[in-house]
Amino acid sequence: MLTIKRVPTLVSNYQEDVLEVSVLPLYAFKNDDNEPIENDIQTLPEEECQMSFLNNLLLGLWEERMSQGLFRYDVTTCETKVIPGRCGFIAQLNEGRHLKKRPTEFCIDKVLQPFDENKFNFTKVGQEEVLFRFEPSTDYKPQYFSGMRVNGGISPSIVAINVSPIEYGHVLLIPRVLDCLPQRIDRDSFAIALHFAREVADPFFRVGYNSLGAFATINHLHFQAYYLSVPFPVEKAPIQKILARMGLGGAGVIVSKLLNYPVRGFAFEGGNGSTARDLSDAVVNSCISLQKKNIPFNILIAQCGKKIFLLPQCYAEKQALGVVDQELLDTQVNPAVWEISGHIVLKRTKDYNDASEEYAWKLLSEVSLSEERFEEVKGYISEAAGLQAEDDKNINPEKEIPDSPGPQVASHMPPDCLVLQ
């Protein structure tokens, strides 16, 4: 059974309420970062294939919480549609999230800020909101325990519901929750997020991250994830290889830039024979560099962890400078990872009814760095991740560039979360 209680604890000579977690369900994921990244649920031996169990576990527990009335609104009743046009932007009308979501409680002009125990943080979540622990296995095999006592002094990584969901199955992954880490990317925590995407092993389940200054609303380290039954537009955007790092036998990491997309961004993929660690290290080193240089960014982990989008942005900076079109500001859309990826959450019926590709393109173009600034960031990433310049000779910008393939419309998702075409 799940037991979480509040107890006074002496921390640095003052009293602080923290969560004492005694027993939690535990999903222990296969902890092998050196396995080739192309090995997935379809290629692993049947006895090792437990990813579908995690998928079913997450959805079953999430639906159980929904039946208990723990969400602030019923997200399955929110209208959703694909906007006509080449990109296939997705619009959702979600008035409840606007009215009931927690406000941002920190300044938006600094990517790195210390944790503040006086602000809302995830040690204050209700016990019923926690679904399970998600931590590495000790024997390289995925396992599930319905109740596992937390050893003293260990801060568990947990998966909890997002009580203000954007979509079906919307959860939070909170690494080492009791350590009260601020919202910043570090090597170990990002590896957990990548494993989460790989273990769920569903191409319609994506993991996202917002830095401070890129519309993270809580300064306590967390990732978000949910199911969406159609491809994100960013997943379909054509790409051009610009950087690469090759190791022994040709293994390495390839970095491409988005083409024909309103936001300039990077797509990281593993090369032939590369490992999850290779890919994770390249992304993490890049993010750490951007954090140090105070450049806000968003991350989307897609394709079951095989493709990772790193999207630097400047919308909040433009807002502060007063250079964003008032018509866009009036929609009150904060373009975080989901919006930048092409799933735009709208808060007014009028905006939803009038949603067009022109509007979506205009909004996301305001998010994007200039070409000059993007090239500067490319240089930072190249240096931080040890990448070399690469040109894809097969891409001719003067000609029509075909879209990249994305996952097809899901047939296994519940009818309530399918997107109208």
TrEMBL record:
InterPro entries: GDPGP, GDPGP1_C, GDPGP1_N
Recorded GO MF terms: GDP-D-glucose phosphorylase activity; guanyl-nucleotide exchange factor activity; hydrolase activity; nucleotide binding
Superkingdom per UniProt: Eukaryota
Enzyme Commission (EC) number: 2.7.7.78
Localisation per UniProt entry: Cytoplasm
Sequence ranges assigned to domain GDPGP1-like C-terminal in this UniProt record: 233-386
Record bears the keyword Transferase: yes
Single GO cellular component term: cytoplasm
UniProt xrefs under Pfam families: GDPGP1_C, GDPGP1_N
Reaction(s) this enzyme catalyzes, per UniProt: GDP-alpha-D-glucose + phosphate = alpha-D-glucose 1-phosphate + GDP + H(+)
Residue ranges of domain GDPGP1-like N-terminal in the record: 54-226
Keywords for this protein: Cytoplasm, Guanine-nucleotide releasing factor, Hydrolase, Nucleotide-binding, Nucleotidyltransferase, Transferase
Biased composition regions of type Basic and acidic residues, renumbered to the chain: 390-402
Residue ranges, annotated region (Disordered): 388-421
Protein family according to the UniProt entry: Belongs to the GDPGP1 family.
The protein's role, per its UniProt record: Specific and highly efficient GDP-D-glucose phosphorylase regulating the levels of GDP-D-glucose in cells.
Protein name, UniProt field: GDP-D-glucose phosphorylase 1
